[in-house]
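Pilot study result, target chain (97 residues):
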Amino acid sequence: MIDFIAAHISDIVGYIASICMVLGYLPQTVRTVRTRSTDDIALGTFLLMGIGGLFFLIQGLLLSNWPLFVCNLLTTCMSSIIFAIKMHNDYFSRKAR
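Predicted structure:
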């Protein structure tokens, strides 16, 4: 019985963490998509966060840990969007010089 309760508490904590992580990424992603402004965004940060999210996504899949998988699926997508816009902006700002 205690294992059953601990498993459910673990899932609840995982879902709460997932919600916090996704809501943490969302404002930056929305702002970047709307404004296309990436001057103040560190390229390496979103590259590494995206790669880290990808590995956590794989780990969640391998462990059948759905909160971990879903959270990192969403955050990896958002990191990829921000990274792609940043790369696009940096490429065209260098080309314009």
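One observation from the pilot: Residues 15 and 67 are 5 Å apart (CA to CA). A full batch analysis is planned for the follow-on phase.
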